[in-house]
Amino acid sequence: MNSRRSFLKQSSLVTAGTMLAPNFLHAFSNRNTHGFNGKRLIVIQLSGGNDGLNTIIPYRNDLYYQLRPSLSYQKREVLNLTTELGLNPGMSGLKEIFDRGDACIINNVGYPNPNRSHFRSMDIWHTGSDAENYWSTGWLGRYLDHECHDPLQYQAVEMDDSVSLAMRGDRHKGFSVSKPANMYNTVKRIKLNHYKETTNENLNYLYKTLADTQQSARYIYEKSKIYASKVSYPNTKFGKQMKSMAELIISGIESQVYYVSLTGFDTHARQKNQQQHLLKQYSDALLALSKDLKQHDQWDDTLIFTFSEFGRRVQENASRGTDHGAANNIFISGGKLKKAGIMNESADLANLDKGDLVHSIDFRSVYATLLDKWLKCDADKILKQSFERLRFV
């Protein structure tokens, strides 16, 4: 009985990190390369509601300066994209990617009846539902459900300790891996030979799960040592996650989808420096990732989609920050874009909805394009309705 209690205690430590999904990587160690078409999608989440208006800056718009007397950036500060719009000065990395034709910026993206709650709006973006509907599966999780006919195919990796709702389906979900070495060192401490199989089906299932987890952890740890990046990434948690992701990709782990988050964008007060610092982290890490993948001929097979759960109010508040808003900009980057540059170039600051920018592109049109044109699957079935396809890929 004591050994069983010990077994269950140790197993809870492992399953908290692996989400009881060890067969993903174990399968790769014994598989033939079939099903993986070489195309991968990387999703980057800017958590907290990034202020899009100080990311893509309308530096010649008088209303921008009237509504943001202390938060606005002057023309001399921005990184010019067009004669009307410029990037936040912290985003020189994205500017370099943009200038070489590997980035598409889409403005005014959102959904009808926007919700200004972090949790609810993020759920809407994660699931792809209407504002009035509550779904329990994510858009990428349903992609796995629909495309994962063979359990060895079409898997997804989240560079964190847990799996986001976006990556959870009814039958399949992504696999969370924060630090391969830590995962391996945790699970290898469990001595499975101390525990004998019993007639208890639950214990037997758990035993098998832990055995597979150990093999998977060993596999990914060994695989992660194949390539150590020499590219300079930001020395931050996000920078390290991006570096680890590049190392897994270049080492040959075949995943169709990767997911990573950068937090801290809930900027109600003293926004300007905080947001610029975060956008620099994001932008510098994105540039490093692009260089890493280009050096190993992986950039053309990679598409990177960056979003936040909502934008922020156009008018600054009394604390030199901005409150929760609605429509926002998103970024698409990769080596094989059909249309780079800027879509929906002008934000209409004269016609706001309760102080918010009005969306003109439904975010699910972005999803439909990614699913249909890049991942080559039935987007309408996964999103449960049809949305316009865009022209960036």
From TrEMBL:
Q: Identify the stretch annotated as signal peptide in this record.
A: 1-27
Question: Is the Signal keyword given for this protein?
Answer: yes
List the InterPro entries hit by this protein, alphabetically.
DUF1501 (IPR010869), TAT_signal (IPR006311)
Entry keyword annotation includes ATP-binding: no
Keyword set, alphabetical order = Signal
Name any one Pfam family assigned in the record. DUF1501
Q: What name has this protein been given in UniProt? A: DUF1501 domain-containing protein
Organism of origin is: Agaribacillus aureus
